[in-house]
Amino acid sequence: MALSTRPSAPASAGARMRLAMQTERPLQIVGAINANHALLAQQAGFQAIYLSGGGVAAGSLGVPDLGIVGLEDVLTDVRRITEICPLPLTVDADTGFGASAFNVARTTRSLIAAGAAAMQIEDQAGAKRCGHRPNKEVVTLPEMVDRIKAAVDARSDPEFVIIARTDALASQGRQSALDRLAACIEAGADVAFPEAVPDLEGFRDFARALPAPILANITEFGQTPMLTVDELAAADVAIALYPLSAFRAMNRAAQRTYAAIRRDGTQRAMLDEMQTRMELYESIGYFTYEEKLDALYAGKAA
């Protein structure tokens, strides 16, 4: 008797992502560092979630976001999330996890097989950097277009969403970023992601110039201001991404809790900030599992 509580989904993950993009605008996509956070995002009412490459690096591996993460590292987290949470998951695929179109194709097929709904692929070169850090280098436009074409050709689910991200704005300027995204859309990308846009007018310019939905990365402590969904809607932005908000808050909470226990010799001072045992049980469906387990053993006893 299976213990899974995952709801059945009538459509592919990619189709669920496209439906979410149609029913909410801007579609708020929040980062989920693990399966537990994916469930919490679902319970908060979000219609889509995101797995950050920087989050996999820092959260799962404890290393910087400098191209150290490999495809299998990402797939492990993707599978854990999609096996338990039905929300469409967008995955940060960095530069495709390899130097050739063959690598991008393999990444695309693997993400679809693991249950992802969308992938983000960028035009950085070599040992990539966080999109809001200096000294980023980008590949040539033809190489970026080849990455997109490889992903488009490799997708077994025609509804799987391909997001083209460019980091050219910081180093080459607005026109280069526009040219790159336009070429990626022509090559089959579904969504345009200009990284590190410094103001609302910049998003408005991209939305006016490009024939595809625009994604705004509203990450904290970066180059883009903390714009509201109303402001983004007024600029015709289709997707608002919050890749690591909960992860940053979780880390700060852990730091405070560890410091308090070490300082006080007890966790009493932190209890009001903790999720209770019952709240955790409710969030992960503990009692449903327990009921099924009891029924399973009751059947064996009979």
From TrEMBL:
GO molecular function annotations of the record: magnesium ion binding; methylisocitrate lyase activity
Ranges that cross the membrane: none
Enzyme Commission no: 4.1.3.30
Sorted UniProt keywords: Lyase, Magnesium, Metal-binding
Catalytic activity from the UniProt record: (2S,3R)-3-hydroxybutane-1,2,3-tricarboxylate = pyruvate + succinate
The keyword Magnesium is assigned to this record: yes
Name of a matching Pfam family: PEP_mutase
Gene Ontology BP, a term: propionate catabolic process, 2-methylcitrate cycle
PROSITE patterns, alphabetized: ISOCITRATE_LYASE
Pathway recorded for this protein: Organic acid metabolism; propanoate degradation
Chain segments annotated as coiled-coil in the UniProt record: none
InterPro entries cross-referenced by the UniProt entry: ICL/PEPM (IPR039556), Isocitrate_lyase_ph_CS (IPR018523), PrpB (IPR012695), Pyrv/PenolPyrv_kinase-like_dom (IPR015813), Pyrv_kinase-like_dom_sf (IPR040442)
The keyword Lyase belongs to this UniProt entry's keyword annotation: yes
Domain of life, per lineage: Bacteria
NCBIfam families in alphabetical order: PRK11320.1, prpB
Protein task: Catalyzes the thermodynamically favored C-C bond cleavage of (2R,3S)-2-methylisocitrate to yield pyruvate and succinate. Involved in the catabolism of short chain fatty acids (SCFA) via the 2-methylcitrate cycle I (propionate degradation route). Catalyzes the thermodynamically favored C-C bond cleavage of (2R,3S)-2-methylisocitrate to yield pyruvate and succinate via an alpha-carboxy-carbanion intermediate.
Family of this protein: Belongs to the isocitrate lyase/PEP mutase superfamily. Methylisocitrate lyase family.
PANTHER family xref list: CARBOXYVINYL-CARBOXYPHOSPHONATE PHOSPHORYLMUTASE, CHLOROPLASTIC, PHOSPHOENOLPYRUVATE CARBOXYLASE
Record-given protein name: 2-methylisocitrate lyase
Naturally occurring in which organism (per UniProt): Achromobacter agilis
